[in-house]
Amino acid sequence: MKSILKTLSGLALAIFIISSCSTNPYAPANRSYKKQVKEFSRSIREFPGVSGVSTHAQYPVATVNFNLRKPNYVIIHHTAQNACEETLQAFTSSKSQVSAHYVVCKDGRVHHMLNDYLRAWHGGVAKWGTLTDINSASIGIELDNNGSEPFSESQMNSLILLLTKLKKDYNIPVSNFIGHSDIAPGRKVDPSVFFPWKKLSEAGFGSWPDAVLDTVPAGFNGVQALKMIGYDTRDSLSAIRAFKLHFLPHDLTPLLTDSTKRILNNLIRKY
Predict the structure, then answer these.
(1) What is the Cβ-side half-sphere exposure of residue 153, based on CA atoms within 13 angstroms?
(2) Cystine design at 78: which of 27, 89, 178, 191 (Cβ 3.0–4.6 Å)?
(3) DSSP 13-40
(4) Of 3-17, 49-63, 88-102, 185-199, minimum mean pLDDT range
(5) For the residues 214-219, what does the mean pLDDT come to?
(6) Adjacent-strand bridge partners of 104
(7) One domain, residues 95 and 157
(8) Phi, psi of 142, deg, nearest 5
(9) pLDDT-based confidence at residue 14 (cuts at 50, 70, 90)
C-alpha cells in the first residue's frame, strides 16, 4: 500500500510544469497549477479508513487492486480565436472557466496545459452514446484556428504525432477520436468544415466510410443509425447536421439523403 501511495504522490509531483521564471508571463498561472496539484496529491494520499457507513468495521482495510482512471476519448476543438496566445491567456485565467489538455498552434508548437489524468473543462453540455460527463472520460485538444480557415500542415503533423502517443498510452479505440460538434449537436461546430477528418482516419484516428458503399437495406432508419454511432438524436435535425459536418461537409442540410444513409449504414459497423 505504501508503495502505491508513493507512486500516486510521485505522479502528482512529476506533472509537466512550465518554467516559472520572472520573464514568463504565465508564472502566476503556473504557481496556481502547482498549488492545486498539491491539494489533489493530499487527497490521493488519504488512507481510505473506515467510512462510518458500516457499524461493524473494527479496523481500516484498503484494497490493493486499483489504478488511475484513464481517458477513453479524445475530443478535438478549434479555438475560434485568431492567435495561439489568445487561447493560452484564456486558459490561464480563472475567469474564463475553460481549459483543455493540449493546445496545438498553427506553427506546430504543442502546449501541454494539463496532466492527462486530470479533468479539463472543454466539453461543456454534451453527450455521446450514454456518456454525459464527457470531461471525466476524455482528453481535450484545442487547435489554433478561427473556424474559417484551413488547418496548417505543421499543425496537422503535430496533431497526428500527439494522437499517436495518446492512443498508445491509453489504448484509446479508433472510433473514440471525435469532434466537439459530434458531442454537442446544434451547440458547437468545431473543429469546422475545414478539418480533414479523412486524413486523420487514414492515420488511424477516427472512423471513416469505405470507398465503396453497400446499398441501404429496406426500412433503414437513419436517425436510429445516428444514435447507434453515438450522436444525441433528441434534436434529430441538429444530429444530422453534426454528422454531415464530420462526414459530408459539402452538404450541411438536415436531410437524410441516399448518400447520407449509405455512409451511415457503412459506419455503424465500425463504431
Answers:
(1) 0
(2) 191
(3) HTS------TT-TTHHHHHHHHHHHHHH
(4) 3-17
(5) 94
(6) 110, 143
(7) yes
(8) -105, 130
(9) very low
**For the segment 160-195, what is each residue's pLDDT rounded down to a tens digit?**
999 999 999 999 999 999 999 999 999 999 999 999
Q: In sequence order, what are the residues at sequence separation of 6 or more whose Cβ sits closer than 8 angstroms to the Cβ of residue 152?
A: 106, 107, 108
One domain, residues 111 and 167: yes
Quick one: cell of 236?
434529430
Query: Both 78 and 196 in a single domain?
Result: yes
**3-state SS assignment for residue 117:** coil
Q: Rounded CA gap, 245 and 51, in Å?
A: 49
Cβ pair 209, 197 in contact under 8 A: no
The three grid cell numbers given for residue 162, joined into one nine-digit string: 500527439
Q: Residue 76 pairs with which residues in a beta bridge?
A: 141, 179
Provide the pairing of β-strand 102-104 with 110-112: antiparallel
- Decide if 91 is inside a domain: yes
The whole domain housing 84 covers: 73-202
pLDDT computed for residue 236 by the predictor: 98
Helix (H) or strand (E) holding 104: strand 102-104
Q: Identify the residue whose cell numbers are 500527439.
A: 162
> C-alpha grid cell for residue 169?
498510452
- The SS3 of residue 174 is helix
Grid cell in block for residue 21: 521564471
Entry pTM: 0.88
Whether the per-residue pLDDT at 48 is higher than 60: the answer is yes
Residue 242's pLDDT is 98
Q: Indicate the burial class of 47 (C-beta count within 10 angstroms; 0-12, 13-18, 19 or more).
A: exposed
Say if residue 198 is in the same domain as residue 226: no
Structure confidence by residue, pLDDT tens digits, 98-119: 999 999 999 999 999 999 999 9
- Specify the pLDDT at position 18: 41
